[in-house]
Amino acid sequence: MQTNVLPSLPNNVRTYIEMYFLNFIFGLLLSLKTGHCLKLESYNIVPDSITVSGLSSGAAFATQFHVAFSNQVSGVGLFAGVPYLCAYQLGSYLSCMEAPSLVNTNLLIAETEGLALTGSIDATENLRNAKVFLYHGSQDEVVNPGILEKIQEFYGYFTTNGEIQSVSNVSSTHCIPTLNYGTPCGVLNSELYLENCNWQIISTMFNLFYGESKIVVNKYSGKLVEFDQGEFFLNLPALCGMSKSGYVYVPPQCEDKQLPCRLNIHFHGCGMSPEKVGTAFIENSGILEAADEHDTIVLFPQVHAIASNPYGCWNWFGYLPQDFIDFYTKYGVQMAGVHNMMKRVADL
Q1: 21 lies in a domain?
Q2: Global confidence as pTM
Q3: I need a labelling partner for 335 at 20 to 30 A (CA). Which of 121, 135, 214, 241 fits?
């Protein structure tokens, strides 16, 4: 005779409990893997220079992080992103990606202001002077390009004294365009999501954030350092959907910590964890060259696939059972963990 151990719980609650259990077992097994990583260091960072950027799910998480921590984050760059709270409002991340007409920007704005009043995110007044860079390929079939207009409306309401640059006329698919790496522009690169569109777009984004660079770097020359993410997630990073290791790139001029440098945090897309692609995306996207040009240290937190997140995406739609209510606030597990990484690097 079989006994139902959760007989009186609603199906959705039962599902979250089961997913939490599976995530816990998976996370525990991953935590037993051996391997030593360095501890994340602090650097000489200009306090008001912190920006975030991301691709796809990483873009969704980047805007989430920007809005939640806008008192410390001054700019955001989104590649194939969606508006803040989009999946929460519609109850489905797929609807958010595929049906822009369903997104009510006025409601997103009202919900954002409500979260700020409760202290769940920083005051929205901080967004007034933000630098916002938006890119969406016109041939994107993963995330509907029409969602870009909704992002513009959202930031247009709050960023009244900053600067918003938006690009939507390049015939690329779901990607970050590069100067000379990846599939031809307009041909989907389903591994690294980099397309050769003869444009170092990351440098353009950094020019918005930090001003025009006086130099052009063709090949990066700093150090890409692997560090232990575990300490930021109670030493069970996989339980939080995070990889054991993350990366930080330090330009040569920033290594001795004498020169005040900037900080960008970049969030990768789904299926792009180091277990899947290594450091190929990081080293070929143009981010490191742009970092050398702009005296910018770049932090690359890394997500790991788990039972409730088999594609290895950032948590912008509530897949972690332990914080399915708070994932879009300062108190979300991944949000708080990356924020502590940021504070470590910037010595805040």
Answers
A1: no
A2: 0.91
A3: 135
